[in-house]
Amino acid sequence: MKKYLLIPLLLLSSLYAYPRCAPELKSALDTIYHFPEGKKLISDVEAEGPISIHWARFHSKSPAMWVGDDRAIVINANVPRPHGEVIRSIFFELHNAIAEKRFERLDWLAENRQISKNDYVESVERIEHENACAVAALVEKAISQGYFPPNARWHIAHDFETHYMIQRENGHSGNIASLYDSLSRKYYGYGR
Question: Which residues pair with 53 in a beta bridge?
Fold first, then answer.
């Protein structure tokens, strides 16, 4: 009788083995899934709950974003990119998904005004920089092993200060600062 109970549990655990994905993005996700480290990453993210990957138009120049509340990776439909860059964007946002608890902690601090705007922005940028460095290294490995195309390569600043300066100049840090404003007003009844 016990072996009959195990089968439904195995079937249930396999439900979260692969994210729901827009058909146009399935090829990029498949590419990540075939890379052993990518498959493990997807599995780790899905262990926290199912995710989806889809297109949307948003005003930011960012190629993609992780939306933790929806457990979704959203690819910016306004920014056309080669297949390799879409792969890299999804791969990066999977890393951000793994860091969700760290982002949530910073959001809580902002909501309760226990962190300054500058410290919040820098902390978020530090997490994303750590993720970007990890992704750049893994992308190089995947390219060298033939899993990812060469145009997935990511040339990033490996030192944080240079990265942070670039993020401030391109508006990314400003978007994070706006999020801080929204979060800190929310707690005091002024926001969303």
Answer: 21, 73
Determine the length of the chain: 192
- Which pLDDT value is given to residue 9? 41
Q: Which two tokens stand for residue 129?
A: 């920089």
Going by C-alpha positions, the residue among 139, 127, 191 that lies closest to residue 164 is 127
pTM attached to this predicted model: 0.85
Of 121, 132, 125, the closest CA to residue 158 belongs to 132
- pLDDT category at 17 given cuts 50, 70, 90 is low
Cα separation, 61 vs 76, whole angstroms: 8
Distance of alpha carbon 157 from the chain centroid: 18
Mapped onto helix, strand or coil, the DSSP state of residue 56 is strand
> What is the domain partition of the chain in residue ranges?
16-187
Q: Average pLDDT, whole number, for the chain?
A: 89
pLDDT of 14 > 50? The answer is no
Average pLDDT score over residue span 144-152: 98
Q: How far apart are CA 144 and CA 91, in angstroms?
A: 16
Three-state secondary structure readout of 167-183 = HHHCCHHHHHHHHHHHH
Residue type, 131: N
Nearest to 120 by CA among 179, 76, 72: 179
Give 148's Cβ-side CA count (13 Å radius): 33
